[in-house]
Amino acid sequence: MNNDNIDFKNIDQETLREMQKLVIARLKASSDDLTISVGSTEYTKKEMLKSVEEINVLGMEIIEAQIEYLRDMATGAIYQEA
Question: Does the pLDDT value for residue 2 go beyond 60?
Answer without folding.
Answer: no
